[in-house]
Specification:
This protein is an alpha+beta fold. It has 7 helices and 22 strands.
Length: 412
């Protein structure tokens, strides 16, 4: 029983030591402010960013929190924006939270000062919170990695003028701008790669001196460094200009792997002024040729649709079997059937192209008898309704006939 008690005490001590290793807590002498500092792992690689998280609990609504980043040059500190929210602890109304990024350039196990937190209100410093120094083991990069490889993720964004995205040829000997953006998350500014060595003039393209600007964007838990290359260039020859591919490599500490990204740039078309005019003339000639070919087709389609509409209108207004037969000839003409076709021939074409149903056959049989002698049970409305159905299919047969009629002369 005594042994178990000692084991429990030993386990409690180990756990408390681990908690103390990742978190330090400070309070002001008057008890108005409480500060919690969460420390990251003590082992990291050179130029690998680490995150120090400060949490401040207070009842003051308007305060300023900062650390003197210039006081610790070996740590390369960057303070990120402060976030204010309601406190989860009843004693305090507000919780302020911010992060500090840092990295180390020299390998080795050393003791570094923890940044002092300054608590200001109304332009005056009210409290200074100091913390225990940190013993950090900074490991050198593996020997297979280049010495100045970026530590963190890199992304590249390549942009050309809109004329290259609109399938239009650019002009030769005109100046355009190639914009390249390299963005690195939690990467130091000096670690962003140099790309101009990969971009060199050749027989097709002449690159002019580039303008390079840098920027920084700070979020609550990260910082993004941006390097912008604005590269003017001229395409010297007509044709497809091949731009150099771009290559980025970086080491991702999270995965422990080196990544190599290859960015392939699409070829860009450029033409001199005489070739551009020649291309315009060719496109204009092609347009005229297409209109000449399409005009008869459109005419035949329009004529067929007019005949179909006229035949259906006559059928709706027909009052006698003879008028129904005349409207059927008009429909047959729109479908491309013989104008003088007999009723049996017209019925056979209907069954083959439109619909083959018993109601159509029965109605047309009665109509055939009614043309020569009265039929007691003939209903013209039933015949008309039967022939007016399948409207979309009738339009399809009409269009098919118009296209076939236009293609037959060209095939001959």
């Amino acid at each position: 029983m005594v042994i178990w008690r000692y084991l429990i005490l030993l386990l409690t001590f180990i756990l408390s030591a681990q908690v103390f290793a990742v978190e330090q807590t400070r309070s002001s002498n008057d008890g108005r402010v409480r500060v919690v500092l969460e420390l990251p792992e003590t082992d990291l690689l050179t130029r690998q960013f680490r995150l120090l998280q400060y949490r401040v609990y207070t009842n003051d609504a308007f305060i300023t929190l900062d650390v003197d980043v210039n006081k610790y040059p070996q740590s390369h500190l960057q303070m990120l924006p402060v976030k204010k929210q309601a406190s989860t602890i009843k004693k305090w109304k507000y919780q302020y939270q911010f992060n500090v990024l840092s990295y180390f350039s020299v390998a080795g196990k050393k003791q570094y000062e923890t940044p002092v937190l300054r608590y200001s209100e109304g332009g005056r410093v009210h409290y200074l919170f100091e913390f225990h120094p940190m013993v950090i083991n900074v490991k050198a990069l593996p020997p297979y990695l280049p010495p100045y490889i970026p530590m963190g993720q890199l992304k590249l964004d390549s942009r050309f003028p809109e004329i290259f995205d609109q399938l239009r040829p650019a002009k030769t000997d005109s100046v355009y701008y190639w914009d390249i953006y390299i963005r690195g998350k939690n990467i130091s500014k000096d670690a962003l790669p140099e790309l101009l060595q990969q971009i060199r003039s050749n027989r097709q393209i002449k690159f002019l001196p580039a303008k390079i600007t840098s920027g920084i964007s700070k979020q609550h838990e990260s910082v993004t460094q941006t390097l912008h290359y604005s590269i003017p260039f001229m395409i010297k020859q007509s044709g497809l200009a091949r731009f150099p591919d771009l290559r980025l490599q970086y080491f991702d500490p999270a995965s422990g792997r080196m990544h190599v990204s290859q960015y392939q740039i699409n070829n860009k078309l450029a033409l001199n002024l005489p070739l551009q005019w020649l291309l315009v003339l060719l496109l204009l000639a092609l347009l005229i040729w297409v209109l000449v070919i399409i005009k008869p087709v459109i005419y035949r389609i329009a004529l067929g649709l007019i005949q179909l509409k006229k035949g259906r209108q006559q059928l709706k207004q027909a009052q006698t079997p003879v008028e129904v037969r005349q409207s059927m000839r008009q429909l047959g003409q729109a479908f491309g059937w013989p104008v003088n076709a007999t009723l049996n021939s017209w019925q056979a074409n209907w069954q083959e192209n439109i619909a083959d149903s018993e109601s159509v056959n029965a109605s047309l049989s009665k109509l055939s008898l009614a043309l020569y002698s009265p039929v007691a049970d003939l209903s013209l409305n039933t015949v008309k309704k039967t022939l007016l159905c399948h409207g979309f299919l009738q339009v399809y047969v009409c269009l098919r006939h118009a296209l076939q009629a236009q293609m037959e002369p060209s095939l001959k």
